[in-house]
Recover the amino acids of this structure.
């Protein structure tokens, strides 16, 4: 690699590493994995630097490489699935009625107006981190990437029923988590 | 008639299905019937719809908090210099 190219890539590394890392961390919620993915991204960038014609911005290019890496990462079999879809026994009793301590409480109107603030966002992110891995992937594919249901099911190798059961469980968990952290009841 | 009655578990599950896929008309009826009889689930449906909006609005790239990672930056710069 010629020195000029190296200098340019070094410059990009300085400018974009934090952003790339934050994105990868956000998508994987694992620091080590996120770091590996960003390092891999730059390895690909070094190798295919010749192919980068400047049709897109360096940032867009690097992010597209990273996103491929993230997708590849999730394509591997899930490392660990900590719940089975449909098992919502935390929330419902054996007659499928609400467990007493899980009954949704009324959220106060005036507090709902505070939802835009930074604190709430932090709570939301923290609650998302608590989701089981598979639920987390489902939520992200659905809301962040806005993928089609059929595509998500295909990528995660699950049935449509399974898919909304996972989202159902995730929503129950998120709702409860936000209620306990965001609303003074 | 019994087939029209849902448990709270099934009712909330259908609410989720409704957000992402289509409900059949039987399912729609089951859900409406359940909500008229069950205040808790009706409340859940409201909050769930609100969460749905929040998730759609908040989960965008721009809102990600940027985390400084100087160690990683240096490592990558070193990788580049060795190529």
């Amino acid at each position: 690699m010629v020195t000029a190219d190296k200098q340019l890539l070094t410059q990009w590394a300085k400018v974009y590493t934090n952003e790339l890392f934050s994105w990868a961390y956000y998508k994987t919620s694992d620091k080590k994995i996120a770091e590996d993915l960003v390092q891999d991204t730059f390895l690909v960038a070094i190798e295919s630097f010749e192919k980068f014609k400047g049709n897109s911005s360096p940032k867009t290019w690097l992010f597209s490489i990273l996103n491929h890496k993230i997708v590849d990462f999730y394509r591997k079999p899930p490392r660990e699935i900590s719940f089975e879809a449909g098992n919502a026994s935390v929330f419902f009793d054996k007659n499928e009625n609400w467990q007493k301590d899980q009954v949704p409480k009324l959220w106060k109107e005036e507090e709902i107006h505070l939802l835009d603030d930074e604190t709430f966002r932090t709570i939301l992110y923290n609650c998302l981190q608590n989701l089981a891995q598979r639920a987390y992937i489902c939520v992200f594919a659905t809301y962040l990437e806005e993928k089609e249901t059929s595509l998500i099911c295909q990528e995660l190798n699950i049935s449509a029923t399974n898919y909304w059961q996972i989202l159902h469980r995730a929503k129950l968990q998120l709702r409860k988590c936000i209620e306990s952290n965001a609303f003074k009841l | 008639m019994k087939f029209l009655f849902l448990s709270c578990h099934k009712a909330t599950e259908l609410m989720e299905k409704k957000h992402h896929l289509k409900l059949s008309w039987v399912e729609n009826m089951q859900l409406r019937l359940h909500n008229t009889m069950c205040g808790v689930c009706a409340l859940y449906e409201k909050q769930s719809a609100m969460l749905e909006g929040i998730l759609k609005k908040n989960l965008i790239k721009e809102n990600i908090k940027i985390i400084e990672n100087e160690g990683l930056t240096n490592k990558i710069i070193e990788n580049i210099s060795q190529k």
